[in-house]
Design a protein that fits this description.
The protein has 382 residues and is an alpha+beta fold. It has a 6-stranded antiparallel barrel with strand order 3-12-15-14-13-16. It has 4 domains: 81 residues, conserved putative lor/sdh protein from methanococcus maripaludis s2 fold, CATH 2.40.420.20; 88 residues, Efflux pump adaptor protein, beta barrel domain (Elongation Factor Tu (Ef-tu), domain 3, Beta Barrel); 55 residues, OB fold (Dihydrolipoamide Acetyltransferase, E2P) (Beta Barrel), CATH 2.40.50; 102 residues. Helix content is 28%, strand content 36%.
């Protein structure tokens, strides 16, 4: 039996390597260039803006209250109800008011009942006056013929004067009755108006935004029972820094938008409250809004005031890629795409302001070709 020759492991591995041929790996082919268009960046003039936030308020808002003190019998609406002008909202206990109206009616009837007696007195006084005038004329004629004494003449003249005074008094009494009738009619009218206060109606068409009364409670003059807002008539009230007030003018257009809704429009500055708020050193600016169905009182809104022009570096909004919180663009650098992180500012039309990450003269790829990646070879095309 022949002895077995054992070789060291490193020598065996070397012999195995010499006896085999490694597989060939051809070099990877270069990827084809991506056709793209690039735009050169330059500074441009943009309108300078100042943004302020505030709250939507109704231009016409009124607390609805009672004009008399009475118990609430019925409340006909709820908060959120739409009402039209003149619609009944609250009914009060009207028994005391009805009693007042009946007293006024009775007073008017009592005064009117004195009319026949007064008219009779005037007629009687007029008849006495006519007789006294005729008698006085006859006595005067007889006195001229020396047929009556002066005493009789003086007595006839006195009776005429007394008849005239009685007639004047009867006429004054009748006039006084007419005045009392007019006064009683006014009292009845006032009582009827007061009786009408038992039914509280909507002063204008709108929506009920608050209800602070329930049946059985006491309505006190001046105490709000409901709050009513005119629908579709709103304004945005925003505080504006004292330093910016000189750039805002009455009647100027302001772009407004609202959180939580896509509603946006151009409003108009209608009022600048002249008093400054001491804590924030700001003025209150009121902006009238056009009719907007999605806008409601109490909503949070933003106003953008144009205050001049400024130079900005901007790129098309479509050139920006967003991944999470990061925003980037592709630039063209020596026929290669380079991803650049950017910080963006305001947006204007289809352009967006670049605050950092790019410089004038940089060439931004737009539109972005499908599948473009950082470092990809790019073939620029017009």
């Amino acid at each position: 039996m022949k002895p077995i020759l054992l070789l060291p492991i490193p020598i065996l591995l070397a012999l195995a390597a010499c006896g085999s041929t490694p597989p060939a790996h051809p070099p990877a082919p270069a990827s084809a260039p991506v056709a793209a268009h690039a735009i050169s960046l330059a500074l441009s003039l943009w309108p300078s803006r100042y943004e302020a936030t505030g709250t939507v308020r109704a231009r016409v808002s009124a607390p609805v209250s009672s004009q008399v003190m009475a118990s609430v019998r019925e409340v006909l609406v709820q908060a959120g109800d739409h009402v039209r002008e003149g619609q009944p909202l609250v009914r009060l206990d009207a028994r005391d008011l009805e009693a007042g109206e009946l007293r006024a009616q009775a007073g008017l009837q009592e005064v009117r009942s004195a009319i026949p007696e007064a008219d009779s007195g005037v007629a009687s006084a007029k008849a006495n006056l006519d007789l006294a005038q005729v008698t006085d004329s006859r006595i005067e004629e007889l006195f001229g013929k020396k047929s009556v004494s002066r005493q009789e003449r003086d007595e006839a003249a006195a009776r005429l004067q007394s008849a005239r005074a009685a007639y004047a008094m009867a006429q004054a009494h009748r006039t006084q009755i007419d005045s009392r009738i007019a006064q009683a009619e006014q009292e009845l009218k006032a009582a009827s108006v007061t009786r009408g206060y038992a039914e509280i109606r909507a002063p204008f068409s709108g929506v009920v935004t608050a209800r602070t009364v329930e049946p059985g409670s006491m309505a006190v003059p001046g105490a709000p029972l409901l709050t009513l807002e005119r629908e579709g008539s709103f304004r945005l009230e925003v505080p504006v820094e004292e330093s910016m007030l000189s750039s805002i003018r009455l009647g100027s257009a302001v772009h407004v938008s609202f959180d939580g809704t896509a509603a946006a429009a151009d409003g108009k500055v209608s009022e600048i409250v002249p008093a400054v708020e001491s804590a924030s050193r700001s003025y209150l600016v009121k902006i009238d809004l056009p009719p907007m169905p999605a806008v409601r009182s109490g909503m949070f809104g933003r106003a953008v005031f144009p205050i001049g022009q400024r130079q900005v570096l901007a790129v098309p909004a479509g050139a920006v890629t967003t991944r999470g919180q990061l925003q980037s663009v592709f630039t063209l650098d020596q026929n290669a795409a380079r991803m650049r992180l950017v910080t963006l500012g305001l947006r204007h039309d289809d352009q967006v302001e670049v605050l950092s990450g790019l410089q004038p003269g940089d060439r931004v790829i737009f539109p972005i070709p499908a599948g473009l990646a950082d470092g990809a070879s790019v073939e620029e095309r017009p």
